[in-house]
Design goal:
The chain has about 800 residues and is of the alpha+beta class. It has helices spanning about 10-20, 30-50, 75-95, 110-130, 145-175, 180-200, 205-215, 220-225, 230-290, 295-300, 300-305, 315, 330-335, 345-360, 370-375, 405-410, 425-430, 455-460, 490-500, 505-510, 560-570, 760-770, and strands at about 435, 450, 470, 485-490, 570-580, 585-595, 610-620, 625-630, 670, 675, 695, 710-715, 715, 725, 735-740, 750-760, 790-800. A hairpin with a 5-residue loop joins β7 and β8 (about 625-630). The termini are far apart.
Length: about 800
């Protein structure tokens, strides 16, 4: 547009004046942005309501669970939206200052960008609110909460800043006219200079009058009285000076008001900008913590974690089991008294592991196989240390054994026997705050995320595989074979054969039976510790009851004693199938069977389990005609021929035997320092019914109480009939014949049989105790008194 009759462009002042009086464009109207923001904000809230209803859980229960938390699929989407909105809001400042001529940010007027700035900021709060969900109301202080409330403060200060620009200027105009403090100050200085000019050449009284005027505000009456002392020719000049002084005073007053109004207009900016910078730092910290970046980075190198023993779980990504007690108090109490919890602190573990390290594994490479024992007994803690000697420094949290994280942070499905190695279970533990379980989309809480784990989806019993198959491929040929490699425990492999043969029992069914209750987080407060009421759950015991109990407790104090006895008793059967007299000899056939275990019986470290038959024959006079497997005291030893064999040094620790019991039936395997494979007369390898080589003691082998790399567990042989005393396979019944001489027996014969179990042999413990170095605790020898013998089954027959 040009002026009429000229070709000249309008001046800059004219352009500004014209822009001030033109109608706002469509994108400069806040009504448009308000409407768009209302639609977008309603969509965010509606999406949150849809998620919370559970309508999307059928798509992917982990990703779209009804949890309103930042880690869900919806939470990540809204969190990303909140960040984008914050960036869009910040673009206003860039548009004003840096990118005025930019191809992209330079488009649009400043007013349009101002409304984008305002409404993007408000919407970012809404997006952040639905992103955080229940996380905003957690009891603790988190980086996410701090970031959210900083964002609220930023938006509130920005809105207040915008409102002050709308509300303050009209009132300020009536008092100060404008905000040009510089012009006002210049005017006051000019008026002071004019006063100097008026007083120049005047009398001393006139100069004193000027100083009096400059000293403060003067009323007309005061000015009139003060000017009476001046000469008549100076009074007119004094009146002009009084007006100048009054004008200067008004200018100074306006300058102070201008400063006050400017401060009130800019006061919110003083909060807005620093809060924005602090918010950016907090968001970065929040994202880093939410995605477990410290744990992931530090977890790459085990050695870098060593200085962090006892440090925050947020850094190490390793959470002690006691942290679970807030919500899972019942489960935690079950676990706390279990042998899993004592896997690293039981006296036998400490003494045996230390001796294995000192006498056998200490000179091997590290961590494999030097940490072979502790890798299995403490997969979480072993990642924080390279030490094999127990106990470890760091208190209970550093010595908790098989804790919650071992199963509930185990990513993937462990292979049998892999837990003994650094590349096994310890390497599979997922660092951070995500717990894995069998339930997809578990109820949200302030402490951890939850998702369904691969092992839980496929077969949760496979979680036992890593530790409950202890074996070492000694010759590194890619396969583990009896007699050629170190095989100390094969429980999980036995279970897998049982299942392949059609067995229906499970590890969980026996060792984690269903218990009463329907709330997994029974002690969690709603909504403080748990966002909302969870559906009813099927709960399993976490006592992990098995053959062992704490040796440092008297048996009566074992909290799980009743469950342990029930488990063992229902696994076995005993019967006196044949009792007949043949001249001066009584033939007794005892049948024992494994009817309740989905693995061999005994299993585990079967060289440390004693399952034997106690047989007693009495005549009519009450005299004992025969006995086998009878102990005078609980701490006496079975008179096993192999243990008592000449040259077997461990036999020196046997108590209560005058000689071997040749008819003893004791299904305890024997741990020897050197194994070989069984061969026939022409040196062909003999295979078992399972098609596997049979491990036997090599020539010159000794029974030992610590594992040797060249050794292993072998079956004993009953001297009376050369029957191998191997463990009973699932559903197997085996018969053993006793030949009882009857010379001198009178009257009715009474035959009593009991199937007995003891989880540790006394001589085994005495051998270990004899090698304890001075100062090592706990002392093993006094704890032998805490052994108990558990009768599993009994049978009785009378013969006239």
């Amino acid at each position: 547009m040009t002026h009429a009759g000229t070709n000249q462009r309008p001046s800059t002042l004219e352009q500004v004046t014209a822009s001030m009086h033109r109608e706002p464009r469509w994108f400069e109207r806040h009504v448009l942005w308000f409407g768009l923001s209302l639609i977008f904000g309603a969509s965010l809230v509606g999406g949150a309501a849809l998620v919370f209803s559970g309508a999307l859980a059928s798509v992917d229960a982990d990703l779209w669970s009804r949890n309103l938390r930042g880690y869900t699929g919806f939470g990540e989407i809204t969190g990303f939206a909140a960040v984008l909105l914050v960036v869009l809001a910040c673009a206003f400042s860039l548009r004003k200052r840096v990118f005025q001529e930019s191809r992209w940010l330079g488009r649009g007027t400043v007013m349009a960008w101002l409304w984008i700035h305002v409404y993007a900021g408000v919407l970012s709060v809404v997006a952040a609110f639905v992103h955080a969900g229940f996380g905003l109301f957690d009891g603790g202080v988190t980086t996410g909460q701090v970031a959210f409330w900083l964002l609220v403060a930023i938006v509130a200060s920005g809105v207040a800043w915008r409102l002050s620009y709308r509300l303050l200027p009209p009132g300020a105009a009536l008092e100060v006219g404008n905000y040009d403090r510089h012009a006002t100050r210049v005017r006051a200085e000019q008026q002071a200079l004019e006063l100097e000019k008026r007083s120049a050449g005047g009398s001393p009284e006139l100069h004193r009058f000027k100083e009096w005027l400059l000293a403060g505000e003067r009323s007309p009456a005061d000015v009139a009285n003060a000017s009476q002392g001046l000469a008549a020719h100076e009074r007119a000049r004094a009146a002009e000076m009084a007006e100048l002084a009054a004008s200067r005073g008004r200018a100074l007053g306006r300058h102070a008001l201008q400063a006050r109004y400017v401060a009130r207009l800019q006061n919110w900016r003083r909060w807005h900008v620093p809060l924005s910078l602090l918010f950016v730092l907090c968001v970065v910290a929040h994202v880093v913590a939410a995605y477990d970046v410290p744990a992931e980075v530090l977890g790459l190198d085990r050695a870098r974690l060593e200085p962090l023993v006892g440090a925050s779980p947020a850094l190490t990504g390793r959470h002690p089991s006691r942290a679970c007690a807030t919500c899972h108090a019942d489960i935690y109490e079950e676990w706390r008294h279990s042998m899993h919890a004592r896997a690293l602190t039981s006296p036998l573990m400490i003494v045996q592991a230390n001796q294995v390290d000192r006498l056998e594994l200490g000179s091997t490479s590290s961590p494999d196989p030097r940490l072979f024992c502790v890798n299995c007994h403490a997969p979480r803690e072993v990642t924080l240390t390279q030490e094999a000697t127990l106990p470890w420094p760091g208190g209970p949290d550093m010595n908790e054994g098989i804790g919650c994280a071992v199963c509930h942070q185990l990513d993937g499905v462990p292979e049998p026997g892999e837990a003994g190695f650094s590349t096994g279970v310890a390497a599979r533990l997922e660092l951070g705050s995500t717990m894995l379980g069998s339930i997809a989309g578990a109820v949200g809480n302030p402490y951890h995320q939850s998702r369904a784990g691969e092992a839980y989806r496929r077969d949760p019993n496979a979680l036992c595989a890593g530790c409950h198959a202890v074996q070492l491929d000694r010759n590194a040929d890619g396969k583990v074979e009896n007699g050629r490699d170190l095989v100390l425990q094969s429980t999980y492999l036995e279970y897998r054969r049982y299942r392949d043969a059609g067995g229906t029992g499970t590890c969980i069914g026996c060792h984690m039976p269903v218990r009463s209750g329907t709330r997994a987080a029974a002690s969690a407060r709603i909504p403080d510790d748990q966002d909302f009421v969870a559906p009813a759950r099927v709960l399993h015991s976490h006592a992990f009851v098995g053959a062992d109990y704490p040796l440092d407790l008297p048996p009566a104090q074992n909290p799980h004693r009743v469950e342990r006895e029930a488990l063992l008793k229902r696994a076995a059967v005993l019967a006196l199938e044949r009792v007949e007299q043949r001249g001066q000899e009584l033939v007794v056939e005892v049948a024992i069977g494994n009817v309740g275990a989905g693995h061999d019986m005994p299993t585990g470290f079967a060289f440390a389990r004693q399952l034997w038959v106690e047989l007693v024959v009495e005549d009519g006079a009450g005299s004992r005609v025969f006995e086998s497997g009878v102990l005078a005291r609980v701490t006496d030893d079975l008179c096993d021929a192999a243990t008592l064999a000449a040259g077997n040094r461990i036999g020196e620790h046997v108590v209560g035997c005058d000689g071997p019991d040749p008819q003893l039936v004791n299904l305890q395997r024997m741990l020897v320092d050197l194994v070989d494979v069984k061969r026939d007369a022409v040196q062909n390898v003999v295979l078992s019914s399972r098609g596997e080589p049979i491990a036997v003691a090599a020539p010159g082998a000794q029974e030992v109480s610590i594992q040797k790399l060249a050794g292993g567990a072998v079956a004993r042989v009953r001297p009376s009939d050369q029957q191998p005393l191997t463990g009973l396979e699932p559903n197997e019944t085996r018969r053993f014949a006793y030949r009882v001489p009857l010379a001198g027996a009178r009257g009715t014969l009474r035959v009593r049989a009991r199937l007995l179990f003891r989880h540790l042999p006394p001589y085994f413990l005495r051998d270990l105790a004899s090698r304890q170095p001075e100062g090592e605790t706990p002392l093993l020898a006094p704890l032998i008194e805490n052994l108990e013998i558990l009768p599993l089954k009994q049978a009785e027959r009378r013969l006239n």
